[in-house]
Design brief:
Layout: H1 25-35, H2 44-57, E1 61-65, H3 68-78, E2 86-89, H4 96-103, E3 107-110, H5 122-128, E4 133-137, H6 148-154, E5 161-165, E6 173-174, E7 177-178, E8 185-189, E9 202-206, H7 209-218, E10 223-224, E11 241-242, H8 253-263, H9 266-284, E12 290-292, E13 299-300, E14 306-310, H10 319-328, H11 344-348, H12 357-363, E15 366-369, H13 377-394
């Protein structure tokens, strides 16, 4: 049978997205209880959610934010990034990993990836370090952790701060230890398609009390009532002060309630993701025309995304035609990500294509495959069938 885009019946009659949240009645009840309580915005549930995540990853502190992007902004603020500072990150990520540097007036510096793991290459980081380097924002792309020890080795003896963007990586372990306590600060996202969701939301975990204090203030206009932080200590209990320019980045209590309820199912979510990944790996490992992402030995990965490379020299067509064929089969593939500095805004800032050739080569031939806990075994079978059908048809 030939692909539906060229005629014939599609693999699926109904569209399958690349990702979707899994919300049950327990989640709805948790949110409903808060909506009927005294607190809607940041309150006891937000604090509880922070404690739950901190305990899970083994960090001393956690600070919740309204989004993962806001959390990265808060981490850059706590790190003291400012105009004249350089921060090294990967181009193979969502724009927020780099935008947060710009928010603070810093300069993003892009280091190339390992072409097998798709993560930032520690040796490429070393090439980009200068006297202006203030921080590094490595990204746990697809959920696979970066090589934290290798990155730490590159900055040994310096004051360079590591802000790990693990938006994809809640539940992943590095050499047996959960991601979240190994870097100076680590960001997790609770966007609907992540390991667990709070609707929108983010969290920074850290073992540094000063970073924690700065982020708590930053997410609430840098306004504090804490007696030890006040400049004027002679006023009553009603008194508060704005100590710096902050933002309203607070997570609501009903979002936190959803996150707490979702967290109760995190082991089940992780297990299902790993089951699907194992099925894909087995099905695709010998499929000529497809190259799999290598999972490093040090990473016990909870995949947020399942990304493959198309071996284009072995195919008759380019990635766009393959993409269109999958969509015609009602299989919702996607592409994660366009290299950050390819975006028009970054081009206007003076960044040029060609900065990170390995990342650019990956972008030109990558596809994101549907992966989420609510997928049935039939859904997984349909994706695999679609690959064999389409790749088989277009193979030279």
């Amino acid at each position: 049978m030939i692909p539906a885009i060229l005629g014939g019946e599609p693999v699926r009659t109904k569209p399958l997205p690349y990702a979707r949240q899994l919300i049950d009645e327990e989640d709805c009840q948790a949110v409903d209880e808060v909506l009927k309580s005294a607190f809607l915005t940041t309150g006891p549930k937000a604090g509880e959610f922070e404690r739950v995540i901190a305990a899970y990853v083994g960090s001393s502190y956690a600070v919740s934010f309204s989004s993962g992007t806001a959390a990265l902004h808060g981490a850059c603020y706590a790190a003291g990034i400012m105009k004249g500072d350089e921060v090294i990150t990967t181009p193979m990520t969502f724009a927020a990993s780099s935008n947060c540097i710009l928010y603070m007036g810093g300069t993003p510096v892009f280091a190339d990836i390992d072409p097998e793991t798709f993560n930032i290459d520690p040796e490429e980081i070393a090439k980009k370090i200068t006297k202006k380097t203030k921080a590094i924002i490595p990204v746990d792309f697809t959920g696979q952790t970066v090589d934290i020890d290798a990155i730490k080795e590159q900055v040994k003896g310096t004051d360079i701060i590591i802000i790990e963007d693990s938006a994809h990586g809640l539940g992943t372990k590095y050499k047996g230890t959960r991601v979240g306590s190994l870097s100076d600060m680590t960001m997790f996202s609770f966007h609907p398609v992540k390991t667990i969701t709070s609707g929108e939301g983010g969290m920074i975990t850290t073992n540094n009390k000063e970073y924690y204090r700065k982020m708590v203030n930053f997410r609430s206009h840098c306004i504090t009532r804490a007696p030890e932080q006040l400049i004027d200590k002679e006023n009553g209990k009603w008194y508060y002060e704005m100590l710096d320019l902050g933002f309203n980045y607070r997570l609501t209590d009903f979002q936190a309630a959803l996150g707490i309820s979702q967290f109760k199912k995190i082991d089940k979510f992780i297990s299902r993701r790993k089951e699907i990944v194992a099925k894909y790996n087995e099905a695709f490992k010998n499929l000529d025309g497809v190259i799999l992402q290598k999972n490093a030995d040090f990473s016990d990965t909870t995949n947020h995304l399942y990304v493959v490379k198309l071996d284009l020299p072995k195919l008759k067509v380019d990635r766009r035609q393959i993409f269109d064929a999958f969509m015609a089969e009602n299989i919702g593939v996607f592409v994660h990500y366009i290299p950050v500095y390819w975006h028009p805004y970054y081009q206007q800032l003076g960044y040029k294509k060609g900065l990170c050739p390995k990342a650019e080569e990956l972008y030109n031939c990558m596809l994101t495959v549907p992966l989420f806990p609510a997928m049935s075994d039939d859904d997984v079978h349909d994706v695999i069938e679609g690959f064999y059908k389409i790749i088989g048809y277009y193979r030279k």
